[in-house]
Specification:
Radius of gyration: 13 Å
Strand content: under 5%
Helix content: over 70%
Structural class: mainly alpha
Order of helices and strands: HHHH
Number of helices: 4
Distance between the termini: 36 Å
Largest sheet: none
Length: about 70
């Protein structure tokens, strides 16, 4: 069992990393799942958009695809 304070700190750290770091697309998607478990309602949707832009950055997608996402 993880103490509540430690779990909250881990959720905050993961949120910060997913917003500020340049990460692999799969990392964003997994982080979105975890952040949703942390109580962030739109975490998966936001993670999908970040993953899309990571694929653009890596040359695998066109940014117009990402712009069309909800």
């Amino acid at each position: 069992m993880i103490p509540t304070g430690a779990a909250n700190s881990a959720c905050e750290l993961l949120n910060t990393a997913s917003q500020e770091a340049d990460l692999a697309p799969a990392w964003y998607l997994r982080a979105g799942e975890v952040l949703e478990a942390c109580g962030q309602d739109r975490a998966k949707v936001d993670a999908a958009a970040r993953a899309c832009y990571a694929e653009v950055r890596n040359g695998y997608r066109d940014s117009k695809e990402c712009e069309a996402m909800p």
